[in-house]
Amino acid sequence: MLRLSAPPWLRDLAGAWIFYSVLPAWPAPAPRFERIARFAPWIGVVLGAMQGLLWWALEGRVPLVAQVALVLALGLWLSGGLHMDGVMDSADGLAAGDRCLEAMADSRVGASGVQALVLVLLLRAGALAMLGPAAPMALVWAAVGGRVAPLPAMAWFPYLRPGGSAAFHRAHGAGLAAELRPALLLLPPLLLLPWPGLTTWPVPVGALALLPALLVPLVLGRRLGGHSGDSYGACVEWSESLGLLLIAAVLTAWAG
């Protein structure tokens, strides 16, 4: 009996599920990790939707501050804190000047890293407090945009640590256009989804979350002179937070 093997893209998707979340691994196919970054936005849909469902379940049942805190806590848990570590290490590296790579490799967190962590969480908390019923869809869009951000970082800038643990992303990349294809497939269904509390349908405002996904890796890459695994993670978290805030600001201005 012939046994069909899974296509490489499906194995990469299974690998992305394991790498980018703490959710239980699939029973099949066997994961592959060579080109998982292209499927990170797909994982973002799942993680953002789970946060959105929690927001919806808590809305009107707990105080807003508790609702925001619990949704943020769920997001951190679902990702295993993978990218937030990069936020802190990248901030410490930027503050260290010529000792940038040394500071980023240090397992200890400095004052700049703590400040960056607080800023990211405050930006996200403020955005959620502004969004209200629109938060679930905004969370999905922001999670997707944040996970698009490492793709241009990998394509546009050299990797700062030859042989580093995240070097495989760039080594196996097939170019930005090819790596973006899975993310582009998400856009049509996302654009057709209705936003609770808004009368206009469909609402393209979620695509605003993609702007930081292009700008953050560009700015950070120029500041560092390239990217590493830490800065890839920083791109995810800063892009997700700024995307969420941008959506909240536009919807607030729209409602006003």
UniProtKB/TrEMBL annotation:
Entries under Pfam families matching the protein: CobS
GO molecular function annotations of the record: adenosylcobinamide-GDP ribazoletransferase activity; cobalamin 5'-phosphate synthase activity
GO CC list: plasma membrane
InterPro entries: CobS
Claim: Cell membrane is one of the keywords in the record: yes
Enzyme class: transferase
Keyword line: Cell inner membrane, Cell membrane, Cobalamin biosynthesis, Magnesium, Membrane, Transferase, Transmembrane, Transmembrane helix
EC number: 2.7.8.26
Known cofactor(s): Mg(2+)
Keyword Cytoplasm attached: no
Metabolic or biological pathway, per its Swiss-Prot or TrEMBL entry: Cofactor biosynthesis; adenosylcobalamin biosynthesis; adenosylcobalamin from cob(II)yrinate a,c-diamide: step 7/7
Family membership: Belongs to the CobS family.
Biological role: Joins adenosylcobinamide-GDP and alpha-ribazole to generate adenosylcobalamin (Ado-cobalamin). Also synthesizes adenosylcobalamin 5'-phosphate from adenosylcobinamide-GDP and alpha-ribazole 5'-phosphate.
Name this polypeptide is given: Adenosylcobinamide-GDP ribazoletransferase
Lineage of source species: Bacteria, Bacillati, Cyanobacteriota, Cyanophyceae, Synechococcales
